[in-house]
Structures are given as C-alpha cells and as structure tokens.
Amino acid sequence: MATTAKTKEVVINTEPFVVNFGPAHPSTHGVFRMRITLDGEVVVDMEPVFGYLHRGIEKLAEERTYTQVIPLTDRLDYLASMSNNLAYCLAVEKLAGIAVPERVEYIRVIMAELQRIASHLIAVGSFVQDCGAFMTPYVYMLRERERILDLFEMVSGQRLTYNYMRVGGVSQDVPDEFIPALAKFLKEMPGWINEYDRLLKDNEILLARAKGVGILPRDLAIDIAASGPVLRGSGVKWDIRKADPYSIYDRFEFDIPTGTVGDCYDRYRVRVEEMRQSLRILKQAMKGLPRGEVRSEVPHLIRPPAGEAYGHIEAPKGDLGFYLVSDGSIAPYRFHVRAPTLINLTVLADMMRGWKIADAIVIFGSIDICMGEVDR
Amino acid sequence: MTLALSGKDIAKQIEKKFPGCVAESAAESLLVEAQSLLEVAAYLKNTPGLDFDYLTAVSGVDYLECFEVIYQLTSLEHNHSLVLKARCYNRENPTLPSVVGLWRTADFQEREIYDLFGISFTGHPNLKRIFLWEGFEGHPLRKDFL
Fold it and tell me: Which helix H or strand E contains A124, and what residues bound it?
C-alpha cells in the first residue's frame, strides 16, 4: 500500500520592527538619522530624519553683508568649501553684474577642480570603508587629500574652511611656490589613482557588495532631480560644466564619465573617472594661467540692485545653486541654497527597499552626503 | 549654454491654453495664479518642445505682502530653462498646490518651505517639518520672526 508522503512546510513568522540608525553612528557620515523598518534583515521602509546640524545659515545670511556670507558658505559642504565659495561668488556677481579678471577665472577653476578631487577622495574612501574595506583604502586616499589641503593652506592659510574667494576676485594671489607644488602634484596623482584602481577596481569583495546593489533607474534619477555622480552613474550625461558652462569651463577639454546601470559600483566608478578628468582640466588651467590682477574694482560694501539671481555650479556632490534676492541694501534679502545632497537623498528610501540592512549602509555611502549642506 | 526661455513667450503660449492663468510675465520669469499652478506645471512638463522634466530647485521668499515660491525648471533634453513663480497672499494660512505628483524632487524642498515659511502644500504626501522639530513655534524664515 502506497503511502502519500506529506511534507510539512516550516514557516517562520516575522514581524516588522523599527531600527533607529544614527544620528551618532560611524556610517552615517555625520549626524544623519534613519528610521529603518526591517522585516528580519530586509529593509521594508526607511524614513530619513534631518535637522541635527541645522544652524539656520539661511537666516543668518540675511543679516550679514554679502562678503560676510562667504564664511557661512564654507560651513555648508565643509568637504568642498572652495566649491561653495565659488558658487556663492558667481551668484552675487550675476546679481550685481560684476566681471572678474582673467587670472581670477583660472585660479578659481584650479581651486574648484582640486576641491573636486579632494571631495571625491573622501567619497570613495568612505564608500569602500562602508563596503567593508576597513581603513586601509581610506587612509590611502586621505594621504593624497592631505597634499591638496597643503596646496589650499598655501593659498588661504586654512585646511578646511578656506574663505578664499571674494566677490569680484579671490582674497589673495597664489604664492610663488604654489605653481611648482601643483605641477608636482599633477605629475604624481595619476599614479596614485592607478594604485587605487589596482587595489579596488576588480576587488572581489567590492564587486560583490556594490555591483547591482541600490540601482537608481535613469527616469527616477531625473524625476527626483538627482545631480552629480548620482545622476551620471545612472547614465545621464548632464554636467553643469558642459551643459551650462560658468566661469571659463568652455575653454577646457574634458569628458563626462557616466555609468550604465546606476548601481553603487557605477557611482564609485564615475567618481574615480571624474578625478582623472579634473586632472586634465588642472593641467590645461595651469598652462594657461595668465598674469594680472586678482581682484576687480568692487566697493567695500556691495549693494546689488534690487532683483534676484540664481547661480549654480557643478560642485563635487552635484548641482549646487544659490538663489539670491536683493532689495538694494548691503545684506541679501533672501539667501537660499539648493543643496545637492539633500535632494539626492529624496530617493534613498526607494533605493534601499528590499535590500538587506548591510546593503543599506553601502547604498547610503554611495550617495556621498555632507550633513552641513543637508541641514544647513 | 542652457537657454533661458523668456517668460513672455511662454505666457503667450499658455494663455491660449489656460486663459487667465498668467498673473505677470517678464523676460526672466513667469508668475502664474496659484489656482492654475498645477495645470500650467503639468503642461510645461508634458508638452513636446518644452519638456521640463527636471525641477532644479524650489525656493520660497517672504515679501511681507505675499509669499512667493520659485520653481527653477530645466529640460535636460533641450537644455533650456524657465523660472516659474506662484504667490500666496494669505498670511494666516498660506497654501499652494504641491507639485510632488509631477516632480518627486519637490518632496523635501516643499517640506523645507513648509517648515521655514509655513506654506502648506495641498496634496503633499508627507507634509511635516523637516529641520525643526514638531512643536517648534513659528517659521524662522518669515520676515516677522524675531
């Protein structure tokens, strides 16, 4: 007599629970807090909680003169102060109709591109650290970032908040030893980037952790107005330096690296390739640097005519914009920052859903945020 | 170079489609009536030739007699831009329609304006304070705060 074998399926009931992630957690890159709803190990939902670093910079700016606002912009994305300075100064110059000397344009491009490399080094370093490469690659990248900080210290005396650019110019000319030091850096840096690639590009652990993880589709990236490497990693060839050239970026030859699928690995690759492109721009800018004044004739107290201006640049983390409204007085009537990383975070929950909590850390790391800019 | 479209040209185009929707048009910007903001925004996004698929930034300004919300629109396909504005005159309970349904990027930015200016965006899926805590009194970026 045949017996029918009954297999009993074992079902473990799980129930969703909420994990508070941050604000003080090493992998949240500052004071970001996520309320992650988990089902077992799988992320069901995520709610970002902001505001732990909110200093009211937009309100503070309304009672400072246009020049006094520059140090405040340093404290937005403090890993890319030069870029913030540049974006703000360009917006004020647009508002007040101020032209800057040729030498200033070149110095600004040099600073902005050095800053891009420095910021991407931190981004890539902390990203691979989130992937599990504890400290070693990060320290390699900090080593090269130090070289850039040395260059910045040479021109501005500061290593983090430079306060270097001014409306209509820069605070002081670069010292004589700057150009030789920059030339030396440009000679050595390509070798270092190759070294990172030998270490990381085909690294099995990095591939396993980042390839195919946290995919941001092209259409969604445009819908949430992602910018910077996050947008380009999803295959959108959009870079303000090419699409809406500011300063003198239309004079330089460089490519826009893009990804194909929009996963964490693509975003990491875009950043590495962008460092190479920045080196190309730096070489051309260093060659073309003319002699001349570093400040144009700007009154001590700038009073732009009543009106408004929106200026934006391609900062390391994305499209950084400043919306300024003037009422003809010495202080901006309204100062609004279009913070690229706050807007890139809009889509974080979508990217995390369905992944394990360990992947959530990698996905978050691949966006590259700076809380100074998110919370303002 | 991103071509900044003239608000006047666009005003002519949309005035035919939605009569009475334009409040003011200048070369730099286009101010629309609050009640027709959504249909104008949808038209700007979905009309071939305009294709404003990328909402770069949303800013709020307090002009005391009114609140103004500024939408910086860009089309990645045609590389042109437009500044769209809407105003609300009610200071006690200012409201504007939310554009989150058209551009999801407005999500956090409208929450930010709600937090700092107190403008309610009707139709926003999750309208609550973003930087300040619930229970904070007042809206700091209003000119009459402090």
Answer: helix A102-130
**B61 CA to chain A: closest CA distance, Å?**
7
How are beta strands A307-315 and B22-25 bridged, if at all?
unpaired
- Residues A240/A312, Cβ–Cβ less than 8 Å: yes
Cα-Cα end-to-end distance for chain A: 78
How does residue B145 score in pLDDT terms, banded at 50, 70 and 90? confident
Q: What is the pTM of this model?
A: 0.89
Nearest CA in chain A to B2: A244
Domain ranges of chain B: 3-91
User: Is B54 close to A222, i.e. CB distance below 8 A?
Assistant: yes
B-chain CB neighbours of A333 within 8 Å are 61
- Does A23 sit behind a cis peptide bond, omega within 30 degrees of 0 on the bond before it? yes
Query: Residues A187-241: pLDDT tens digits?
Result: 999 999 998 888 888 888 888 888 888 899 999 999 999 999 999 999 999 999 9
**Under CATH, which architecture does the A52-375 domain have?**
Orthogonal Bundle (1.10)
Protein fold of B3-91: Beta Polymerase; domain 2 (3.30.460)
Cβ contacts of A336 on chain B, cutoff 8 Å: 57, 59-61
Positive/negative CA dihedral, A263, A266, A270, A271? positive
Amino acid identity at B137: E
Contact A376 B131 (CB under 8 A): yes
Token couple for A119: 């910021």
In this prediction the ipTM stands at 0.90
Domain boundaries, chain A: 52-375
The secondary structure of residue A332, as a DSSP letter, is: -
Assign 3-state DSSP to chain B and report helix, strand, coil percentages, each to 5: 25, 30, 45
Q: How far apart are CA A203 and CA A328, in angstroms?
A: 57
Residue in A with minimal Cα distance to B115? A51
